[in-house]
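Thread title: Can someone regenerate the structure for this chain?

I was given the following input by a collaborator and told the matching structure tokens would be attached. They weren't. Posting the sequence so someone can regenerate them.
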Amino acid sequence: MTDLAIAANGLRKAYGDKTVLDGIDIKVPAGTIFSLLGPNGAGKTTAVKILSTLISADPGTGDIRIGGHDLAADPQGVRAAIGVTGQFSAVDGLITGEENMLLMADLHHLPKSEGRRVAAELLERFDLAEAAKKPASTYSGGMKRRLDIAMTLVGDPRIIFLDEPTTGLDPRSRHTMWQIIRELVSDGVTVFLTTQYLEEADELADRIAVLNDGKIAAEGTADELKRLIPGGHVRLRFTAPDAYRSAASALREVTRDDESLALQLPSGGSQSELRAILDRLDAAGIEADELTVHTPDLDDVFFALTGGADVTDQPNQPDQPKETVR
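Best answer:
Regenerated them for you:
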């Protein structure tokens, strides 16, 4: 438990007769990115608000420890250890970027000189130094989001909650934000990420939990979650008809495509499964001209685990390939 930045047992929250969180467990190792996925209204933001001390969990919730602090007994200790970037920008558009940073420094009770130093360093780090004297209302969406995270870092938190941090950003700004998140983790920061972009969780998260109907439907690495869903297969293509026929005889459970000289085998795409297929071909003295692994992606996982519940619209999200040529 000492290596866990976040440990919540039996997290519960209901509003009237609507149960939002039904006794979920969350464990996030220090220095990693944990992503909570789920359809709209699944309770992702509620979980963030509870863990960041903004609202209280319901009776019956077990122990919650954030950064080594007991949430119930020491909420101030938790607040000192964390930073929160919510769905909606905390940036004040009526003042400059620099003034937003200095305001956060004042809220953290930093001495004036230290506050100015920290603000200047963070504005430089997030490529906002040139715009520091301009009203934040003139910033682009990506600049406001970078300023949001810079403001979150003023207190040097070791745990950061990012609640849908890239919503509404264009693809270039989203990729810039991903790089910022990776750099935070490389510095030892723990990131708790909720996102509406399945690609984002796949790209960033060390572990992913899928929240549905108040419960964790599944949890694991992106690859582990993808292997839960059937439909993965390996496709072997041959140019020589004799090699194609020999491979069809040597391999079991194959689907043949005589026109394209291709064979398809069910497979989860794991290294051991691929090695077994190649070993059987080697034993028969056969070499495929092309081997392609087809695996389900997080979209497939999400819809399978949530019963087809809608994920928030994902504008400007490019299609992701579902296959890798080896």
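The chain has a mean pLDDT of 88.
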